[in-house]
Amino acid sequence: MVSDQAVIGCPGVLVIGTRGAAGPGEVLVKIRGGSESFLAWSEEPLPKGTPVLVIESRGTRQVDVIEWTDPTDDPWADRADGMC
Q1: What's the per-residue H, E or C state across 7-76?
Q2: In whole angstroms, how far apart are CA 20 and each of 41, 47, 70?
């Protein structure tokens, strides 16, 4: 199997939820100036619509993902006290 190293570190969103060890879901990843879909594996089940980060390529069109929120999207991220 040939892995796709370019996808590692890319954000995406689950279009089909993962089932943890029971099976993969599907993720839409922002990559190469567009979006591509991959089978998505995770340690724990993750529901459809979960924002994720690709942490590993398993080979042809298969990746490992973790739940992830972009800190630049969080308006509270730059405030230590969490206040406006």
Answers
A1: HCCCEEEEEECEEHHHCCEEEEEEECCEEEEEEEECCCEECCCCEEEEEEEEECCEEEEEECCCHHHCCC
A2: 7, 10, 22
Q: What local confidence, expressed as pLDDT, does residue 23 receive?
A: 95
Q: Which two tokens stand for residue 21?
A: 């060890």
Residue 41 phi, psi dihedral angles, 5° rounding:
-110, 145
**Do β-strands 25-31 and 11-16 pair in parallel, antiparallel, or remain unpaired?**
antiparallel
| CB distance 26 to 40 below 8 Å | yes
Residue 18 has pLDDT above 90, yes or no: yes
pTM for the model: 0.80
pLDDT tens for each residue of 20-66: 999 999 999 988 888 999 999 999 999 999 999 999 999 889 999 99
